[in-house]
Specification:
The complex is a heterodimer of chains A (260) and B (310). Chain A is an all-alpha fold. Chain A has one domain (2-259). Chain A has 13 helices and 2 strands, in the order αααααααββαααααα. In chain A, strand 1 and strand 2 form a beta hairpin. In chain A, helix 1 (2-15) crosses helix 6, helix 6 (99-120) crosses helix 8 and helix 8 (149-176) runs parallel beside helix 13 (233-259). The two termini of chain A are 28 Å apart. Chain B has 2 domains: 2-212, Rossmann fold (3-Layer(aba) Sandwich); 222-289, Alpha-Beta Plaits (2-Layer Sandwich), CATH 3.30.70.100. Chain B has helices at 40-47, 69-75, 91-101, 107-117, 133-145, 163-176, 189-195, 213-220, 237-242, 269-278, 293-301, and strands spanning 2-11, 14-24, 29-33, 55-60, 63-64, 76-79, 151-155, 181-186, 198-203, 206-211, 223-230, 248-252, 258-263, 283-289. Chain B is elongated. Chain B starts with a strand and ends in a 9-residue tail after the last helix. Classes of the chains: A mainly alpha (260), B alpha/beta (310). Chains A and B meet through helix 1 and helix 5 of A and helix 2 and helix 3 of B.
Amino acid sequence: MRNIWTIAKREYDHYFISPIAYVVAFMMLLTVGIIFAVNLYYYIQSAFQSFGSVPDMSPITGAFGFLLVLSLPALTMRLLADEARMGTLELLLTAPIRDFELVAGKWLGGFLFILSVLAVTLIYPIILNGIAIGSFNILPPLVSPGIDRQLMLSSYLGVILVSASFLALGVGISAIFTNQIAAFFVTLSTFVFLWWLIGFPASVLQGTPSLVFQYLDMKTHFYNALNVGSVKLSDLVYFFSLIALGLFTATTAVEIRRWR
Amino acid sequence: MIQVNGLTKDYGARRAIDNLNFDAEQGEIVGFLGPNGAGKTTTMRILTGYMPPTDGSAIVAGYDVVEESLEVRKRVGYLPETVPLYDDMTALEYLKFMADLRKIPDSEERAYETLEQINLHERANSYISTFSKGMRQRIGLAQALIHRPEVLILDEPTIGLDPAQVVEMRNVIREIGKDRTVLLSTHILTEAQQICDRVLIINKGKIVAEDTPENLQSRLVGSQRVVLRVRGEADELPAKVSKVKGVRDVEAKSDGSVEFEFSAGQDVRPQVAKAIIHAGFDLLEMRPIGLSLEEIFLELTRDNATGKKS
């Protein structure tokens, strides 16, 4: 466990000196911020009409989830590919740590970075709910009596699981390649495939095959379930399977590297 | 400390090392000498637990490199040929990271101590990207030393260094090697001669010779060659020297010196000296020319088809 933490900490620190990580974080937060502002405007407009809806966090988490498809490959591409290129993989593979600990540490480092970026978006529920100490309002709430907390927890859990799964797959792909650019494009293709393409056969096929493709489609598990407040075991199993698959691929790829 | 038995490694169809056998004791500096592609790095990678062998076994610091790889890795310090450094870290951060990976308590303190040991503590907070080649090599060595390992494996530790840095690196290795087992690879023969207690010459995956540098030399030297130099004209010198009993192959060189050979165990140098002085020459120099390790090495690694003795 301590080894995983040592690797993760180094990886996490590395993101904060890496220009790519800053660009990715900036673009994600900027996009999410614009979406929040536009939504807020819409809510305020519609609040005076009878069909007005109640603000919640799902537009923010939904956009964040989609942005992960495009931005995470840039964060995961170097994780193991770069170590292999620079020769530092030899250092890590002759240090007294298990291959799995190395892989899990890399994954955890990336995961903690994404959680840090995601944590910044917590400013939005604070803006909506306001800040109050006792009965004194420091920041008056925009939504009374506050946004749906359970829906918010569920949609944040969704984004966290999407990040964790994508990161695990990204680490797995990065472990296979020595070239970061190759790792980037294969990772991006994999994400696009899992997010959009794999769901298409579900609408043409019927019966069990249709259900299988529907289950493999990641956006369904996110947009139709967790992001609208439904936490089901089948969705959790889907995400945890992807995490296990990604980390297993990465560990195996590192082991194969040793045998070559 | 290191016991290698029948170690073999294949890369696909190519056999990189073939049935290697050797030992290294505690406090011994063993040199691994061979041309590029001879299998030095492959052997070292197996001994450090980086990759498993195809066949054979190796015991390092009392543990099997395949069965108990993690135990071996805890006890071995390794400096790979391409020094594995993170340019985005400072020297201290890097060594602290390595100390943490090795679960050393007070890792930062130990990192600083190790920097002092290699004389880089004044640059502790400089980024590794700003370091010279020699400093990078030293940081690489520090990383291999940080857990005070019983066995040190150094792959070409002096490659790419300037002469002053080479001397410094050799001194550091000699110092470290006093109470530890050091296995170092090199293709610089004088280096092996200077630092190693024992030399293994490896070629095409096989050990072709194993001995102390001195013994290797005497084993191959059947006769001794000497160079002579006198003041002034030396036209008649070869004739005078040839007359001494036991002298062979007298040869006048273009620079005015004269070389001759005599059989080992039949030292005729005193007689030659007397004869030269007797003939009225002022003897300036009489120096044996040793067969250098270079020549021994070429002799040993020459293909059997074209070579003579080995």
